[in-house]
Amino acid sequence: MDPTPINKPISRLGLYDALLPCSSEAVFSPRVFLMPAVHNWLDSMKSSSPTHRKLAKDDTSATDVAVGYCNWLLKYPSALASFDHIMNNAKGKRIALFLDYDGTLSPIVDNPDLAFMSHDMRDAVKNVAKHIPTAVISGRSRDKVHEFVGLEELYYAGSHGMDIMCPGKEGEEGNLFQPASEFLPMIDEVFTSLVEITKDIKGAKVENNKFCISVHYRNVDEKSWQTIAQYVQNILKQYPRLRLTHGRKVLEVRPVLKWDKGKAVEFLLESLGLSNCEDVLAIYIGDDRTDEDAFKFLREGGGGIGILVSSSPKESSAFYSLRDPSEVMEFLKLL
Ligand SMILES: [Mg+2]
């Protein structure tokens, strides 16, 4: 099915409404996001950046961790153990697959430039894409995630879905959809300011993901986290149309726009001609807070299921879970 052209209205989505900046009452109001005191931001930075659990020092705590994970699996069953059940639900339906990149297809690594996916994982994605329409949706820039994955046959959505490329027919250009294009000059300006202001903070890394900026603090001493939060907030005070969100050890600056990974999934399903929930099962696999928007969309009538990648218990709108990227690969091989 041909992707929907960029300028064609999308009825089911109410797309034009979605492109309007949020009102001041909306949950994404910059005032809501930018006003909290820095110490609140620091708490958020800590809580939104779970480190992998250190190996317990004694067997008792190790057992507690294992029991905790097993109990959590009762609520979010393993997608591997539940594979037959998932396929039963998919009977007579077409499947569409949506994959996050970091922490889902690739391991989380200290240097985001080195988050490569394995050859085996690439093969697994390539094979599944032969019979299931497959999209990669990442917070990274579309070019970067395309470079990492390196498969031409996929749909790519970068910048948390704000930069979508649908593959064209053979020999033709693909279709591009960029709901936040007017923000580009502003994002570039803020990126330059953030690079300048954080240059003396050891380990800080500012990444321009085209429609969002990532300020990575994974390699920054915790004593300097407050400084980073303060710097970013100070700059954003001058840009009320940008907002700040958290990922895993990363602060992200994004346009104030009702657009997220959930909207991107909705748009892609529409583009693929798979928006009829009755005969489509959409599967979204992701590990991060930003993936929750997609999980939520699928749970609330989007005609699909979310699979959370996590090795420790956490609340989610996903239905199922996988422990880590190696389990993701096993799941893809089964599809
Ligand atoms: Mg991720």
Structure description:
It is a single chain. By secondary structure, the chain is an alpha/beta fold. Helix content is 37%, strand content 17%. It has helices at 15-19, 30-34, 38-47, 59-75, 83-90, 119-129, 142-149, 184-198, 225-236, 261-271, 292-302, 325-334; strands at residues 94-99, 134-137, 155-158, 163-166, 175-177, 205-208, 213-216, 242-247, 250-255, 280-286, 304-309, 320-322. The chain has an eight-stranded mixed beta sheet, with helices on both faces. Strands 6-7-9-8 form a four-stranded antiparallel beta sheet. Strand 4 (163-166) and strand 5 form a beta hairpin. It is globular, with a radius of gyration of 20 Å. It starts with 14 loop residues before the first helix and ends with a helix. It binds magnesium ion (MG). Residues 100, 102-104, 286-288 line the site of magnesium ion.
Multimerization status: single chain
Mean pLDDT: 84
The low-pLDDT segments are 1-36
Percent helix among the residues? 25-40%
Q: Main attributes?
A:
335 residues; alpha/beta; eight-stranded mixed beta sheet; four-stranded antiparallel beta sheet; 12 helices; globular; disordered N terminus; binds magnesium ion
